[in-house]
Amino acid sequence: MKVEGIHLAGIGTYTPSPTPVEEAVRQGLFEPGAARESGLLSVAVEPALSAPDMAVRAARQALDQAGHDPGDFAAVVHNGAYYQGPGHWSAPHYVLHRALDRPIPAFGIAHGCLAVLTSLQLAAGLLEPGSPGRQAVLITGADNFSTPMFDRWNDSELAVFADSGVALVASTRGGFAALKAVGSRSAPELEGIHRGNDSLLPPARYPDHPWRAASRRQEWAERPGAGPRDLLDSVNRFAELVAGLAERTLAEAGVAREAVTRVAPTGFSENSLHTLILDPLGLPVELSTWDHLRTLGHATVGDQVLGLAHLWRSGQVRHGDHVLLVGATEGLEAGCAVLEITRTARDTEGRTW
């Protein structure tokens, strides 16, 4: 979807002190061979702050940078891929109360690791230039896997799960980046990869390992009628999806592939990052934010924002540069956004962020 008049006015992040992968191996949390194959150096682990509280910290950074009055905001969209707190409770309103404290809508979307990118697409429909109360949307995302209910190190062979909070302020008044296009595309025939043999009614619940990503994928591969190449074919199908979506989104943005300065992808482990995203796009790892993500792990809804923040704050992208945000979630679905950098970090009110 081509986007006009929507900008990123603020960006905020919260990442805890990372745990070195070698320490996780020493403690018996991570198998040495899997640790080497991941390519990770460390993983962000937060033992105390909840996911919504990390989102609030990130939100306050983004709001401070954006400079909007609380009355400018149309909504808060808060997302997480994992449990945010008690059942039958609203984490989005918790974030709203502590970040803006306004009587505006607060909601989340169940879109997995693409939720923040999809929230940008929703923000484009909520905002109206010059209209009071519709000049900004606060988008937040956070997850915390520091619970005995989840094994962050071994639940998936594709990634190791990280704790973080991120925030963006989408604005009609300008900012440090212009949103040029955003969208997603799915391969719904592959939804069973993340379902496996689990029951839909009653809904399956696993107190020890509620996602079981690796075992569900294997169950799908061994389902009745499955072929020996189904897993490989699903990888190839997703690679085609990513390549096609990126081509479409760049065309909508009016940006040539050669004009992409950097790419902020999902924080997969090294081999999966190449297979699922970088190789389909024909991009070298040096253009990606892997150098940063390999110190954090897979921050679910926050990967692209963490990568963008790192690129912008460190001066690796400057005025006129184009950044491609690209990610994936169950479904299977891929998402992309194209940004044009319009201000450097040092230009933003004279501060270095």
From TrEMBL:
Keyword terms, alphabetized: Acyltransferase, Cytoplasm, Transferase
Beta-ketoacyl-[acyl-carrier-protein] synthase III N-terminal domain segment(s): 108-172
Gene3D superfamilies xref list: 3.40.47.10
Cited Pfam families: ACP_syn_III, ACP_syn_III_C
UniProt cross-references to InterPro entries, sorted A to Z: ACP_syn_III_C, ACP_syn_III_N, Thiolase-like
Sequence ranges assigned to domain Beta-ketoacyl-[acyl-carrier-protein] synthase III C-terminal in this UniProt record: 250-341
Name of this protein: Ketoacyl-ACP synthase III family protein
Organism of origin: Actinacidiphila acidipaludis
